[in-house]
Specification:
Layout (H helix, E strand, L loop, with lengths): L25 H10 L3 H13 L3 H13 L7 H13 L3 H13 L7 H12 L4 H13 L7 H13 L3 H13 L7 H13 L3 H13 L7 H12 L4 H13 L7 H13 L5 H9 L4 H17 L4
């Protein structure tokens, strides 16, 4: 199958997250307010706790400053609060502080310090930190490049059900990085991540079905996985789904559907999508192109399926 290529690995997790509740009280009331998008109330409830040394509240204040929730965006303030919580051993804050150092947000960029904080959080079984640490080893950022170490950390996070790590472990198996190449194992891990709705894993699982790697070749299954990722507004999946419709691979050939998906992929910034759209447009009537444009506009108004 031409023009369908393998998608890459998710190298670094940029997820942040808030500290979870433990028992009823002001902290939990703050979480409830945050859930209602009443950020000013959440800040009012958490700030006194943070000033009193509550590491959960300190971490959450850092998150609020970083993400501009109820306060003016301020990476330096975010780092300050993350640091206070991290120094108390809060794993989520340690992971978040590692992210800030890795990306030079509110502090001078420093991969070695980022690795130190990821290691502390990973040692407390924080799955996001374990995944991020794996990616630091994969890239040789702040540590010596080591595929086997990357696999080890991805495995720890994947075993906790962290979808991005499951995808990354699948990539390592598919490419024989840090362990013996095994397409069946790659499919298994991609499947776990894809079942959680992780779009890149859905694309890679679709590609395994396209190529018959680790599973029997099945264009229908491939198209189904591309569809799931495309519905999340994942441009690469939209382009691949367009190719399936344009060629009748696993779906009934439909130039109108193909044009719509290529158009969406192009709107998402995928460079090859405009060329694919023009190629299929050359085979369409003006009425079909108009219908495809109508569907494109309707999809854009509806937005992705999340």
């Amino acid at each position: 199958m031409k023009n369908i290529v393998r998608a890459g690995i998710t190298v670094v997790v940029l997820s942040l997250g808030l500290a979870a509740p433990s028992a009823a009280g002001p902290f939990e009331d703050g979480l409830a307010a945050y859930g209602r998008s009443d950020y000013s109330i959440a800040i009012q409830l958490w700030r006194p706790l943070a000033d009193q040394g509550d590491s959960r509240a300190q971490n959450n204040l850092g998150f609020m400053y970083q993400r501009c929730r109820g306060v003016q965006q301020d990476d330096a303030a975010a780092v300050s609060w993350y640091q206070k919580a991290a120094d108390q051993g809060d794993a989520l804050a340690q992971k978040n502080l590692g992210f800030m150092y890795q990306n030079g947000r509110g502090v001078a960029q420093d991969d070695a310090i980022a690795v130190t904080w990821y290691q502390r959080a990973a040692g407390q079984d924080n799955a996001q930190a374990q995944n991020n640490l794996g990616s630091m080893y994969l890239q040789g950022r702040g540590v010596q490049q080591d595929d086997a170490a990357a696999v080890s950390w991805y495995q720890k996070a994947a075993d906790q059900g962290w979808a991005l790590a499951q995808h990354n472990l699948g990539f390592m198996y598919q490419n024989g990085r840090g362990l013996q190449q095994n397409d069946a194992a790659a499919v298994s891990w991609y499947q776990k991540a894809a079942d959680q709705g992780y779009a890149l894993a859905q694309v890679n699982l679709g590609l395994m079905y396209v190529n018959g790697h680790g599973v029997s070749q099945d264009y229908t299954a491939a198209a189904s996985w591309f569809q799931k990722a495309a519905d999340q507004d994942f441009a690469d999946a939209q382009n691949k789904l367009g190719l399936m419709y344009a060629n009748g691979w696993g779906v009934q050939q439909d130039y109108v559907a193909a044009h719509m998906w290529f158009n969406l992929a192009a709107a998402g910034g995928l460079r090859e999508a405009p060329t694919s759209r023009e190629l299929v447009a050359a085979k369409m009537t003006p009425q079909q192109i108009a219908e495809a444009e109508k569907r494109f506009a309707q999809w854009r108004r509806r937005g992705p399926i999340l």
